[in-house]
Design goal:
Strand 2 and strand 3 form a beta hairpin. The protein has 179 residues and is α+β, with helices and mostly antiparallel strands. Strands 2-3-1-4 form a four-stranded antiparallel sheet, sandwiched between helices. It has a single domain, classed as Transposase IS200-like (Alpha-Beta Plaits). The two termini are 31 Å apart. Helix 1 packs antiparallel against helix 2.
């Protein structure tokens, strides 16, 4: 595996993308988006994660994160926890796509020795260290314009599961850390 797109500077500021295997549209439903929000909040409070920007799309999450600790460890724990929460919700809540989703997650786990029964997230995070203000601003714009480019909203601040609302000083889901 190439070492580009890996978190090398554990205390750096990183643009990350967490992608659902097979591009399954898990986050088309609010219950799963809230798992991500709650997990970010937990990591902020208990693991010293700093969330600087984020957007939750239907099958992936873009974010800018940092910490004074070990970012790779926090990302690993975040993905492991959210995987368990998503799978538990699929299995226990009313989910019309249950059988299909579990089949896809089982299929991806079968071909990946790092996964057990199910694999929800891809193992890659497409980590890019942001070392200049221009890089940070460019990635924030990219994150916030994702729902606009996808045709979900007309203005970035209208999307409820994005930090664009923080930047527009509207009601927010997560308290962001300053850069």
């Amino acid at each position: 595996m190439s070492d580009s797109y890996q978190i090398k500077n554990q205390q750096g500021i990183y643009f990350l993308t967490f992608q659902i295997v097979g591009w399954v549209d898990v986050f088309s439903r609010q219950v799963y988006r809230e798992i991500i929000i709650d997990s970010f909040k937990y990591c902020i409070e208990k693991k010293q994660l700093k969330v600087h920007a984020f957007v939750i799309m239907t099958n992936h999450v873009h974010c800018i994160l940092s910490t004074d600790l070990i970012l790779s460890d926090i990302v690993r724990d975040f993905k492991k926890h959210t995987s368990k929460q998503i799978l538990n919700t699929i299995k226990t809540e009313q989910e019309s796509r249950k059988d299909w989703m579990l089949l896809v997650f089982r299929y991806y786990a079968k071909y990946n020795k790092r996964s057990e029964n199910y694999q929800v997230w891809t193992h890659e995070n497409h980590a890019v260290e942001l070392t200049t203000k221009e890089m940070i601003d460019s990635r924030i714009d990219y994150i916030h314009l994702n729902p606009v480019k996808a045709g979900i909203v007309e203005n970035d601040f209208e999307y409820l599961y994005s930090s664009a609302r923080n930047f527009a000083e509207l009601s927010i889901k997560i308290e962001l850390s300053e850069l």
